[in-house]
Predict the 3D structure of the following.
Amino acid sequence: MRRTLFLAALAALLTAAWFSPPLLPPASAQQTSTPDQFSCSADNIGATLTLLSASPSGNCTATTDGTTRYVTDIIAQSTTATGGQWILRTGTGTNCGTGTASLFPSAATAARFSAAANGAAPASISLRTPLRLPEGKDLCVLGVGTNTTTIQVLGYVGPK
Amino acid sequence: MGAKAQAKLPTWTCGLDDIFDSPHLCRLAPEPGQRLYVTDIVAQNTTVTGGVFRLQYGTAVALGGLTDCGTDTSTLFPSAATVAARISAPGNAARPASISMRRPLIVPPGKDLCVEGDSANSITIQLFGYVAP
């Protein structure tokens, strides 16, 4: 009897969950508080380390007030019919030229991750554990010479 | 995840079929004080040859019905691609482009959401998201 009641309750719960409106991930400042979120991009990037620009204006430079950037999503595409490669790096000064270090992949200094050819699905990377930029560092991207990359980086600003 | 932590925000989806390289309206701006948040994009070319697309925002122009973001048009994704569409909508024999973002793309308040497709090979696209302040 007890087991029957338990199974009935479980069935009712599952049915309610199935028909309930779609739920979004837990609410947090990053979900609906737009000042905490950032969206940075670079277009047609070759073998030159380039500072990402922020949307709708500005650049993806270091944040202040004891915060830093956390990267959650990266989408990359080659601008040509042949795939290219890219790497995210950080630094200061013009186009991260001072104190340059690799963010992703962190162990490489050359462009390593694929930006798919523009006839193939883009590289789309969503991270459950975000990439944390070192405090005081700008965000840049390095591509390759022939098959340049367009990239979009999304994330939020949080405590360092 | 606790009930208090969950957010039930109004969701939306919009689709466009067989579009080429001019901005096509997908979703009108919500009521004042609210914005469109884009969380997912799925795109496919209508032919075996891949094409490209980009998301744009602006103000739809009433030319026989609202059809585009003809006024004050800017690129949402990829935001630096002000010159041309860049993201692939693969040929229809390959798997579709499927982009799901943990941090959404945010359309500025009062702006409509559009898609610009490819000049040669039309695309089909579906966008998903929610409305929030």
